[in-house]
Amino acid sequence: MISITPIEIEGHLFTAVTIALPKTNFMSISNDKGYIMCGALDVALLNEKLKDRKIIAGRAVGVRTLDQLLDAPLESVTYEAETLGITKGTVGREALLKMATHIL
Prior knowledge:
Elements: E1 2-9, E2 12-21, E3 24-30, E4 34-37, H1 43-48, E5 56-59, H2 66-71, E6 76-77, H3 79-82, H4 92-101
Parallel strand pairs: 4-5
Antiparallel strand pairs: 1-2, 2-3, 3-4, 5-6
């Protein structure tokens, strides 16, 4: 089952996608600038092989719900996310706000 849910954080809109898979859930919350995601995100791949795309993203591990994804500290982030002040340990919700308020 696939679920798409709008999420508002301090007046900024995001899109949450949850895909129920056998024994796990795939989750991401995004806007037009970047996203946070569950442990399925391969940050090393984004930083190394897709570096030229300048993807703004962060990964939280051990999360099972969207609320947990919002409240979890990010375990890893892309180099491009770091340019916005999003670092390892930044809470998901705060990372999304930095993405929403940054002018590209």
